[in-house]
Amino acid sequence: MYIYHGTYLLSCGTSVVLESRNLVEGKQVHAHMTQSGLQLNAYLGNILLNMYVSIGSLPDACQVFEKLVKRDVVTWTSMIVGYSKHGCVEKAFESFCQMQREGVNPNTITCMSMLKACASPRSLMWGRQVHAHINAAGFEPDMRLATALINMYAKCGSIKDAFDAFRQMQQEEVRLKNALIGMYVKCGSRDEAFGVFHELQQKGVEPDKISYLSILNGCANPAALEQGKQIHGYIKKSGYLWVGNALIDMYAKCGGLVAAHEVFDAMHDRDEVSWNTLIGGLAQHGCGKQALEVFEQMKCAGVQPNEVTFVGVLSACSRAGLVDEGHHYFSSLCETHGITPTDAHYGCMVDLLGRAGNLNEAEEFIKKLPFEAGPAIWGALLGACRIHGNVKLAEHAGEYCLKLEPQNAGVYVLLMHIYAAAGMWDGVARVRNTMKERGVNKELGRCWIEVNKRMHSFVVEDRTHPQSEVIYAEVDRLVKQIKEVGYVPDTRFVMHDVDEQQKEKAICYHSEKLAIAYGLLSTAPGTSIRIFKNLRVCTDCHTASKFISKIVGREIVARDANFFHHFKDGVCSCGDYW
């Protein structure tokens, strides 16, 4: 009776600890058990083991594990989960093998835990061995296990293995299809994801919430706006109006800000995610003042802002140059809302001050941080130095950036741009040589545009496109026309010491201009042109895009590595502040 009573109290005690996730309380429960004379049998050991794993104390979990004389499948599975949570995949796999050597057979939960642990490219080999064990052990077809297999292979980047795992399952349940859709989305295979989604519909199977959330995630880029609208239509017909947050996010990431706002306005139940998504979307599109208006509406609606909210708010202030407002909202984080600032909030403030030209204040802000500034914060200061041409501070910020991330090609490129703009060609050569010595390669700028459901890719001076001659002629025509209405090529950041004519030639056929020219040639007059680029849009292409939008009377939406630019009637939505 005493043992039963003690076991019951231990179970209750660990349940309380699991709710509070307090390690000190957990150790007190463990100590009480020991003092009460309870023997550490398999049942009690598993309770303690699960408690320590759940609250994240792997060393304590290991100590309990080592003291257990008898270990069952629950014991081993708990340790595998513990190792997985702490990123110790090799240890997890060793435990998976050792339990079998000791005569304990993994069950479905064990295998699912192991597959979750292996869900990264470096763990693909172990994941395949777990899959082989599942096949050899003759597990009954299990939806959860099949989904875990597909997800594991998808996160490892192995599409073929994921599809093979899918084909092995005879069932055509929605959950399996959802896993396959998610896999294709993660791998960037949008058309294949849509194929699976439409296959569900053709077979008369109603897509569920996960189906729609997964496919909307696949639509979240500028090239997929029309497909996103199509999915939105299906959602309206299905009555699944609870995916409003995903729709707002999808439209914002596609550049359809008006549609995102319309979805938000039509929602009856808005949570903090709804407000945060819209605020973040507005900030990403350079609509800083509108983002702050939505934030004030959020507070009036009685929705409590959180950490994510303030990242969006401070980012909006930074994009719009609202320095005073940024200071106010940053102060209110702790004082009004009781939120401890994170490195993301501090980074937004450095970006805000730097973009506004308050470089010394930004540097002092970094010095006063309660922790060592990371590469994102120093990178924000370096980017501001590029905007304002401060070579001395750029060298200081660049030194910290390269100390923290010596293989980050973007830092070297920024430094070369700053030196080039200042005419310091020895500095450009020095940085270029350092890159060569360290084996760092500059990422090639690439621009994409989708026309008639086909993606077209361009790099600088690209002549691989079948219509390159026509495209180049169109670029030449556009450049001639915009020069007549005031366009002056911006050659400041050309990283070669050549004459002005050669510099102009170097920027004339940038990937953005080639993509825009192809879009004008290939789409109907009056329609918007949507392009996206892997790097920050260059200053000259930004200026040229404004002029082109005016002379052709068409909107050009460009998504670069940072955020969106909407060029219309000779003006950009960012207000030339990006």
UniProtKB/TrEMBL annotation:
InterPro entries according to UniProt: DYW_dom, E_motif, PPR_At4g14850-like_plant, PPR_rpt, TPR-like_helical_dom_sf
Pfam families: DYW_deaminase, E_motif, PPR, PPR_2
Ranges for the PPR repeats: 72-106, 173-207, 271-305, 306-341, 408-442
PROSITE patterns from the UniProt entry: PPR
Residue span(s) of domain DYW: 486-578
Keywords of the record: Repeat
Protein name, entry field: DYW domain-containing protein
Species this protein is from: Sphagnum troendelagicum
